[in-house]
């Protein structure tokens, strides 16, 4: 059947309009992300000190298959190859972390010039490739020397962190414009201090746990101030936090309002305190005698103004309105609810729409970056050497589609960093769960881009889903 010129033009216009609806804003930042202990290896190279993860990973029974980060992706030596992978993707930015023990092997004292010089060379190589560095100063690798003094249970660790953060930011001043103080305080405190599944694996309870959490928040606030004092006026400072991404069970007004309340209260010990400079009354009432000891000056420091907020979003929680003190109720995931390869990642693309939108509305956040999003997959090389991780492609397509929809509806998201560039050391799961869009043969260190890498490359090229 022939198509009339008028109908053809109408169809083309409709297709163009549809494409525009799924486009991201001009200048949107596309990046990928990693963390030092997960990819660098070289744990004894060039004066690096021991971290709590070195100790934890070498403790029998802590990591699947007895794996460690001693070599990981050997990115400390192979970073030119990894930067070439980024260039082939077309990313404009890369989120990496500095290993605190490479800079101050004992956590404090004299800096290690070889460690400082390494990150300067690395950042310069990123710039040479046209890639903007986004630097996280703490991604869980606390110097073991500080842990022996109490780690985050010791208030002095907050000051030590600020001294390190200010020093390193000053060394990278002019090379790096975006610094994040810490990655996921909620995770390294909750799982490492409150639990035993991550380093240092203390299993603390009650007030001792809450005091460690408060000290980490204080370290963040002190570091914000130290970074500002050590860098130029153009430097942007923020943090990256894993949130309880609030989602209404469906978008009836009462459930949306409930989810907005949950955005504040379910993140009260972290983002809410950081953006308001106070713990909510309900949060302190719930903790009771377990509440941390703090001063008004502590809270002023914790609430130090930041320029952006990084959100790590993998899944979320659904909420409905409820006639209780909180005004909301969490809806548990039934056993039939789908999840990805990692059992903790319930498939919830709605989290990428509602999470940034409601956090921005509830806490007055004006600039957000999605600093981590991705999923694990069991996809492995086939007979032709291809890694056809269609599950990850599906995941990314749906989450990015919801992110784009959220931006259209006013969520102030300025960029997106896919987790992760490479398969890597996945903490207590070792090498048993692969989050990379690049397959890594850990025996040979051969890197093979997966199908998801091709998908992400096309998204970046078109700035659209």
From TrEMBL:
PROSITE patterns: GLYCOSYL_HYDROL_F1_2. The keyword Transmembrane helix does not apply. Keywords: Carbohydrate metabolism, Cellulose degradation, Glycosidase, Hydrolase, Polysaccharide degradation. Pfam families: Glyco_hydro_1 (PF00232). One of its GO terms (molecular function) is beta-glucosidase activity. Its EC number is 3.2.1.21. It catalyses: Hydrolysis of terminal, non-reducing beta-D-glucosyl residues with release of beta-D-glucose. It is an enzyme of class 3 (hydrolase). InterPro entries: GH (IPR017853), GH_1_N_CS (IPR033132), Glyco_hydro_1 (IPR001360), Glyco_hydro_1_beta-glucosidase (IPR017736). It comes from the Bacteria. Belongs to the glycosyl hydrolase 1 family. This is Beta-glucosidase. It comes from Rhodanobacter humi.
